[in-house]
What does this fold into?
Amino acid sequence: MKHLNAINRKAVRVEAVTQPAASAASATADVVALQNSGQPPQQPEGPHIPPGCSIVFSPGWEADRTGGTAGLCQPVERDLFDCHMGCYWPAQVPDQLNHAPDWTAKCAAAQKDWRKIDLVFPG
Amino acid sequence: MNNLHDASSEERDGGSVAVDVTNIAGAEVGIPGVSPGVDTVIRLGEFHTFEASGERFGYMVPSAAVFAFDACASAVADALADGPRTIGDLVAALGPRFRADEVWDTLGELYRARAIDEDRVFKPAPKILPLTVIPLQTLVVNVTNQCNLSCEYCYEYGEDKIVDTENGSQPKFMSEETARQAIDFALRESGKTAMVTFFGGETLMNFPVLQKTVSYARARAAEVGKDIDFSLTTNATLLKPDVIEFLANERIGVTISIDGPQEVQDKFRVFSNGKGSYELVAPKIKALLARHKARPIGARVTLTRQTLDVMKIYRHLHDEMGFWEVGFAPVTTAPQRDHALGDAGFDHLLSQFRVLAQDFLQASLEGRHHGFSNVRETLQEIHQGHAKAYPCGAGIGLLGVSTDGNVSLCHRFAGSDAHSFGSVTGGVDREKQNAFLDSHHINNKTDCQTCWARPICAGGCYHESHTRYGSTTGPNLHYCEWIRGWTHTCLEIYGELAVKNPGFLRQFDGADDEAPQRH
It folds into this structure.
């Protein structure tokens, strides 16, 4: 953070936990070959864009948007959201705009609650 | 942005410690609303600001995080002080001083720290019950409930006592067998290290049992592969040469209850015939300090309305007598007693503490040791950023044992049936423990919910509350102003040290597990 300076240990934790997704740490920690070693991450910190779709031309399967591997496409639960919201896949999931607005209501955190997302039957 | 799978959701689900109720686990990245715009209304979150060394800081509530604000963050906080406003309005108001993108950046960071928020409704702290069993850290063993002094303000013998120690059913001295059972209990319930504190009454009145218990405990600890550590509190009247020799050889931590120089000590700390105890204890304390160098020896002072000269007491005990540390506590008593501290007394106490705290700051900036332990303990808690759901470890990591082997909330409730948590032979009654923790959680203390000092105070001492209000459940409303004043002072000192001598604070980095227990 630039305008706030974390002073005590809890503040350091707050800063780490609220770090925007795909943090700089993952960029420096792995897949060194894809980066200029010792250099800061290539891309500036931006909003989190779901990784992993060929249509939006993010590398996805091989490396995440920072060039690291921490934010690669995740199986099942991750793709479900990434693909149907930011990608070409809306036909394969219930229509949340019109017919099934509460489809993910029980799914507060995808990693934990994805099993609660149920089938939707027309009617 | 889709918060369903942001990076913090893993931290959000796990990693919470039962006692530490920080809300950062629920933090999400971004500014309120899906896409904040110039029309988005923002307001200040809950935090307390303070200044130190020319800088502005914020103590966040309830996370207990401390951040330093730069000029832009400070300006945003000021601009929102009078109430909520739109981002557009705010950016325009700050326009002459800060670029719009700077203000937006700052808003993002302030939101991450929860210094700005969508609303200010009270968000309850997480309540994680029933507890996963937390290992016992400290067991306070009351080896006797008898005392050779008759201090007028004593909570155990005075007018405010909870348990009848004179004519009650408990033995006056703990038997060797019960003491052994208490040690077995401590070793069973603790983690890698068991900390045993001997207490009383006057602890040393049962020296023979204490002596045998220490050697039994060392042998048992070695058998079960755990470490064991001992300390005790005494009034120093029975510190005979052989006792001092034993304490030094066994590396037993010693805290002396003493109120200050002769005229102060002899006001309340008297024998049953009314004679003061200073003349007897002073040479014994000097002998102890000369021989027992293995561990720092602390003085524990009880402050009353009549004995409030903190500076003088500190100078005598630290500079003249040679105690490593001096800790002060206001007397625990019903408000109508003559020695009770009233509002004026607490104000006076605060001004005295502030003077001594400045002394502490000066020494710490120069890299010298200073023995004012109250400020040291508070700095440690601020540094760690503890956000407490309970005021202390009593009933969680700390338990008390009475002379008959009953396990209770803490040593001050030892022997009280109403505050019993089981026994050294039968183990901890988890059902009772959970019921206690359920009813004493910070969320139940309505008065605390608007107080910025609640992460560090959490309502204050159960025993104090019981003595004042007849129940352990309520907060100690009679010293709220004092707690806020004192916490503010400690925050200022923390800020000064963070700016001018940050290395000093490193000593508190790993000190979490060794936090001294207050008695």
About this structure: The interface with chain B takes residues 1-11, 13-15, 17-23, 47-48, 50, 78, 81-82, 85-86, 104, 107-112 of chain A (CB under 8 Å). Residues 22-37, 41-61 of chain A have pLDDT under 50 and may be disordered. The CA atoms of residues 81 and 110 of chain A lie 8 Å apart. Strands of chain A lie at 4-6.
